[in-house]
Specification:
alpha+beta, three-stranded antiparallel sheet, 1 helix
C-alpha cells in the first residue's frame, strides 16, 4: 500500500487594519487563503498580523 501524497502549502503574513479587518480577510479568503492565526505585530497590539496558508497547486 502506498503512502498518501503530502499536501504542500504556501504561507503569507499580512498586517491587519483594525477598522477594516473583515474586508481584508474576506479578500484573501476569496483567493483561497485560510486564516491560521492572528498575533500582535512588532509594534504591539494596535497593528495585528494575520498568518494565512493555502494549498499549492
Amino acid at each position: 500500500m502506498s503512502e498518501p501524497a503530502r499536501r504542500r502549502w504556501e504561507y503569507a503574513t499580512i498586517p491587519l487594519l483594525i477598522h477594516n479587518t473583515k474586508a481584508i480577510l474576506d479578500s484573501w479568503g476569496t483567493d483561497g487563503w485560510e486564516l491560521v492565526t492572528v498575533l500582535p505585530g512588532p509594534s504591539g497590539s494596535e497593528q495585528p498580523v494575520a498568518y494565512l496558508k493555502r494549498p499549492l497547486s
